[in-house]
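Case study.
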Amino acid sequence: MAEEGSVGIVQTQQYTFAEPPYELELDCGRALGPITLAYETYGSLNADKSNAVLIVHALSGDAHAAGIHNTTDRKPGWWDNMIGPGKGFDTDKYFVICSNVIGGCQGSTGPWSINPKTGKPYGLSFPIITIGDMVRAQRQLIEHLGIAKLLCVAGGSMGGMQTLEWMTRYPEMLQSAIVIASAPLLSAQGIAFDAVGRHAIQADPSFHNGDYYETGEQPVQGLSIARMLAHITYLSDESMRIKFGRALRSESEYRYDFSSEFSVETYLDYQGEQFVNRFDANSYLYITKAINYYDVAAPYGSLDNAMARTRGKTMVLSYSSDWLYPPYQSQEIVNALTRQRKDVTYCNIQSDYGHDAFLLEVDVMKKIIGGFLQHVRHEDRKTRGIAHDVDSEAEFGPPSSASQSIYEGHRVDYEMIVDLVDEGSRVLDIGCGDGELLDQLIERKGVDGAGMELAQGNIVSCVRRGISVVQADIDKGLPTLPDQSYDYVILSMTLQVIKKPDYVLQEMLRVGKKCIVSFPNFGFWKVRAKTLAMGRAPVTRNLPYAWWVSPNRHVLSIKDFREYCAERSIRIERELPLNRKGLVWTARMWPNMLADEAVFVIAKR
Amino acid sequence: MAEEGSVGIVQTQQYTFAEPPYELELDCGRALGPITLAYETYGSLNADKSNAVLIVHALSGDAHAAGIHNTTDRKPGWWDNMIGPGKGFDTDKYFVICSNVIGGCQGSTGPWSINPKTGKPYGLSFPIITIGDMVRAQRQLIEHLGIAKLLCVAGGSMGGMQTLEWMTRYPEMLQSAIVIASAPLLSAQGIAFDAVGRHAIQADPSFHNGDYYETGEQPVQGLSIARMLAHITYLSDESMRIKFGRALRSESEYRYDFSSEFSVETYLDYQGEQFVNRFDANSYLYITKAINYYDVAAPYGSLDNAMARTRGKTMVLSYSSDWLYPPYQSQEIVNALTRQRKDVTYCNIQSDYGHDAFLLEVDVMKKIIGGFLQHVRHEDRKTRGIAHDVDSEAEFGPPSSASQSIYEGHRVDYEMIVDLVDEGSRVLDIGCGDGELLDQLIERKGVDGAGMELAQGNIVSCVRRGISVVQADIDKGLPTLPDQSYDYVILSMTLQVIKKPDYVLQEMLRVGKKCIVSFPNFGFWKVRAKTLAMGRAPVTRNLPYAWWVSPNRHVLSIKDFREYCAERSIRIERELPLNRKGLVWTARMWPNMLADEAVFVIAKR
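After joint prediction, the assembly is written out as follows.
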């Protein structure tokens, strides 16, 4: 039965192209035809055909992403928890297409298909397929469906590689893209695991060099060994410890033989058995090889050149415990997009589930993907108010929970900062929290604004406000940002808690033509402490450091900050002493006395 | 040719026992006999037989740990870089024994051996062997060699499991133990990888259910697949990226077929081929099964009960990039030993080499293992001066490089602290740096002292001084330490830079009957700044925190510290204001004015 929020009963469809006399040219130099692609669609295409979202699948996926095939079907599509009415890919709003890949074995042309030239299954005579070939074929399907431009292409794992290929090969056909748990290329470790899996299949006596279709049995043992191995790489050490630990299947005592007795062993046996019933060994060889070959940068000379080709918004999601497509590989994509000044949002989602997290972390993915798609579709700011709600905070804790900004009072500095920024300028807010300041800047000054933030809850809030944000630790600086690439770089009420203020300020000045910094003024306390002696942080035999190079976190005053700017020959353009009511006019004489916070506009000399 | 520092040409020896009518009772309930163990020895046993070190090997290791077998032998023993004259296991000082395991295939009784009852090789009729059985057999060898007590048992990976078994099964026979890159038990992930490897062997048509010896060919493909898979787990993602990346074996272009073309593939092929020439498939099944079964805690109900049985000094070494025996598993051993108040030293060695690091990180291992063994052998402090040198700093950077203590001047507080501590008391110095204070405390007060420190260079310095030290981040508190388990817990000149001073001080008071804290006095600076107003850290609208709960790092004065003690109802037993010359007697009236640092002795009320 179709559950609440399900797309219900769906039919897998097929589209055949490259029929004689035509053929599809492949990357390997050979041609293939005719080609059939299996696909499914959910929701309905709107009048101007602007709401189509293409879902591309991982190694063992297929066209059946959501819903069920009949009333007695117990097993819904592979991404049913993300695709449906009110779900992350909301079928009430979007026309969702999921396409199988060529080389596959679930309704699309692959090694199991009959070679029209021989009348027999291709087997290993099937040409080597690349991710590029898969996407080339998908493009034919999209055009067949009469869609000129996709609202979004999204996929996880190998699906993320197909998404990267779409972004670089057919940028004009995309409004946005979501690259999930993926990488610009597979690591040497990943290639090694796939190679061992292929060895296991090829070593199986039933493999018969790929011509096993007529024997009626496929290399079951080799394929199940390959699957067991791969399955380990989809989980994490943590998730396996939680799920199995060292539990025994049934006995309480060791059996002292070589049968599978640990729960984790019997679980893997089961995964292997299930897999061989639904997947073709030759397809496993071809698809893993396609993954191993993929390198989005190769055709363009560098990852930056490749990302320079992309258009529209991109969101990249990785998962903290994913070691098959580790977060640092997603960050390489994000960094290249950032260097190329593309509109990119990134979140490394905290999860114990390993690579499988992209199929399991539904709650946060629903919020972040749903919010992202809504703003891709409605570019006008008006909708932002609607889109934004704070219940994400309820789930992820208050923005400040893991935020680097510790300040939580009423933000008098925001007004000042918004006043200081020029209309329509390009702004980066580092430690942007839940995006409130950027929201005001976009609303009132129509700036092209982006944020940098550490806390997952804040990232989600920003995305749901339609603000592009990259998850990063500002204490690590802004290494991926080009010199002078923003009109303003803003650091509000965060300076006093970051580890390396000197380094971060130098980075801000490198990246921003102007920088705006606000911080609490400790000079003010010293006033109340009735001393005008020196508004400086202590320097003694035991603390032989100026505050800005101190390993201690820092208490600084307006005087301290002025002194720092002098030391580093930084030009102070504006200095605004504030108290809770706003600008302290009287403070123009004695800001360090009367102001309890300050906003500075600085720039390189 | 034997190189400089080599033990030269060695012979593998054999010892046979459990001959009729005797047999060795095994954990599986069956008995085995006769049993032959292959072993090698290096260096010479001293008169009182007190310098014997037993080396136990990993899954695919053997008795040949060092030297060469003949003048043309190109390949020295598996741990030749650690065993020899002047090396980590210095054969000029120690009599080093390396024993093969039963179940093995390099000269010891295993499934390849002839079953005297049938006159044929055992094959799978060989009984299941456990780590306990391996150690039981090794004990017979040690007694045969006339050694009543071993100076040390040391091993990595499965060798670490054998070491743990020695520590818990025959504690009276050990003076010390070194557990390297190991775990109390193998993780579910590790068991899963081994299970897949066994499947590959058993699925090989040449396996013949283990009776392949007479066929003249062993299951080569299955065994090489198992080895390739295992080999991946011995490396790290990082080391594989550095070593192979995506380099192709020869061609610059993809070959678009299923042959091994990436360098990492051909490397694994080579590893597989080499392995099948020297290792027996049945032994691989038996030994991996022994590893999967091992759980040091099982016979005793808990890891703490197991570690409670141990005697003497233990050193535990893990490697930062080891994901097969991850550092957290070594830390579980260390924590249990600590809870049981055992003498334990721990270092998580920074390395990119993954699990293989225990065979490759020779420099640091030579220093830390050499230093450890020297102090096990010479318990008297005199030798400590000799053993200690600071060249470790040259290699690992100054102690403060990654230390949590930032203070580097002349330590006037040390003298005061040494004076304050009672003779022969039990002392823990958290953030102990290179062990200087503990050294003075042991020399002058004969205390039972141990340290806690973060920086690897400092850990090495401590070990070479003969000081037991556990690598840990004091900001994470002292969760593994029982209440009131030390007479004194000391935190010198570190309070002002730790993240959560309140939490750490509470932990110190829980663990120590008395706590000694020294810190720089900011009140002193305020004196110089000509203000007596209030010796307090600022509290304003923008910093609504007392210094000790502030997310900012903290500037505190004697008054601040007194106030904190009052707030937390902590008893101040002594308060010693200091300047660079020492105790400031005149400061008794105005310590906050005249002292630039202070030492407090505090306890729970």
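Observations recorded in class. Chain B has four domains: 1-148, 152-185+294-384, 187-293, 387-604. The two ends of chain B are 69 Å apart (CA to CA). We will return to this complex in the next lecture.
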